[in-house]
């Protein structure tokens, strides 16, 4: 890892550490409802991942662990990793509160080979994860190395076209490239759960096209089972969205020109 990447990760870690307390107290994450039995998983990943009972599952970039714990409630033997030490501490707190047996490990994604032992039936990642990673080639290789033979990787993620816009103004403005190896820096007040939160989010990220994602996984030896694209999102994460009858969100009117999400499943043969 070069020195520039280390600097970027340090800034991102500091920002995510500051976000954990805000997010955990937010309506968006609804920790009280979660502790009372509500799943944090959405219909897309529940349907496409399928039955996880008695499967081992590694959750990459797990934030403070709600999805990891939700899979554990469904019978999976789970391990979650995240860059944020505050996120991992909160995840451990929730794990103890729920009486579950999930392992949570503070780790940069690129340090997973040295920090996480063993192989897994499922490797999982979701919603706003690959944009924090400068190198998808190594990402794909790490995923393949942590899968058992016959196991699969599942990702559901915001569509790369959505990341071409800045949402710091209304209407959103198209300013970023579809894919780029150059780092993108943003600094803004608040966070996605609380726009008025007393925090300045400082974030370094990278835009990756669908071809780069598919190639990273296939070049690592994984077989692509499917690539799906979705017009609807479970999150009201962009300005001026309409809620649908099935409690999803879509962009308004003539802005509805591109998918909001994609999912991919890749198997280790």
UniProtKB/TrEMBL annotation:
Pfam families: Methyltransf_25
GO MF annotation, one: methyltransferase activity
Protein name: Methyltransferase domain-containing protein
Matching InterPro entries: Methyltransf_25, SAM-dependent_MTases_sf
Organism field: Lutibacter maritimus
Keyword annotations of the record: Methyltransferase, Transferase
Residue ranges annotated for the Methyltransferase domain, each copy included: 58-151
UniProt-listed GO biological process terms: methylation
Entries under SUPFAM superfamilies matching the protein: S-adenosyl-L-methionine-dependent methyltransferases (SSF53335)
């Amino acid at each position: 890892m070069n020195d520039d990447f280390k600097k970027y990760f340090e800034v991102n870690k500091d920002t995510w550490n500051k976000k954990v307390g805000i997010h955990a107290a937010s309506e968006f994450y609804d920790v009280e409802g979660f502790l009372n039995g509500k799943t944090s998983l959405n219909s897309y990943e529940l349907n496409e991942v399928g039955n996880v009972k008695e499967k081992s599952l590694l959750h990459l970039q797990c934030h403070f662990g709600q999805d990891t714990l939700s899979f554990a409630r469904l019978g999976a033997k789970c391990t979650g990793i995240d860059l944020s030490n505050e996120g991992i501490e909160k995840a451990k707190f929730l794990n103890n509160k729920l009486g579950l047996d999930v392992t949570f490990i503070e780790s940069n994604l690129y340090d997973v080979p040295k920090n996480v032992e063993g192989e897994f039936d499922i490797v999982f990642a979701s919603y706003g994860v690959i944009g924090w990673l400068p190198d998808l080639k190594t990402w794909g290789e790490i995923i393949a190395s942590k899968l058992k033979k016959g196991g699969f990787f599942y990702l559901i993620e915001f569509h790369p076209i959505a990341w071409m816009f800045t949402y710091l103004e209304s209407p959103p403005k198209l300013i970023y490239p579809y894919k780029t190896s150059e780092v993108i820096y943003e600094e803004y007040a608040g966070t996605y759960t609380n726009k008025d939160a007393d925090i300045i989010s400082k974030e370094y990220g990278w835009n990756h096209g669908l071809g780069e994602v598919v190639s990273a996984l296939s070049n690592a030896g994984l077989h692509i089972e499917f690539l799906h694209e979705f017009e609807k999102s479970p999150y009201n994460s962009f300005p001026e969205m309409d809620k649908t009858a099935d409690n999803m969100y879509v962009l308004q009117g003539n802005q509805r020109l591109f998918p909001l999400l994609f999912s991919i499943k890749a198997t280790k043969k």
